[in-house]
Amino acid sequence: MGLGRMVILTQQQIAEINVHAEAEYPNECCGAVLGHFESGKKTAREVLPISNKREDTAKHNRFLITPQEFLHCEKAARKQGLEVIGFYHSHPDHPAAPSQYDLDHALPVYSYIIVAAAAGKADKMTSWELQHDRTKFLEEPINKE
Taking the complete model, does pTM exceed 0.85, yes or no? Predict the structure, then answer.
């Protein structure tokens, strides 16, 4: 599995992520992306919104997916013959670029999709993959189907 591969999302999946970001504003939203790893690309088949479990005072700039939620996502994916290929979250009133916190809590291989939510409106969306040495993210192109 190489770095900087492409992630493929449908217009509907992009819209679902954007709606979730806008609904949760001014807090961060989060969710899982289910799909397939395929020769140099990650193809999304479903986005699965997750409730941000971070304490209320930190939800505006942090998100938390609990181990129980992660297990639920793994089971939902397996039930459909899919894999968890990544996660998404929003950055309310901040750019769609990974923060140091994102870097510190990410795992290699997964796509980390970030949508900027400016004044409550979803804006730019980017995707990132953590290098295997965990020192930095590489941006992945988003191919919109």
Answer: yes
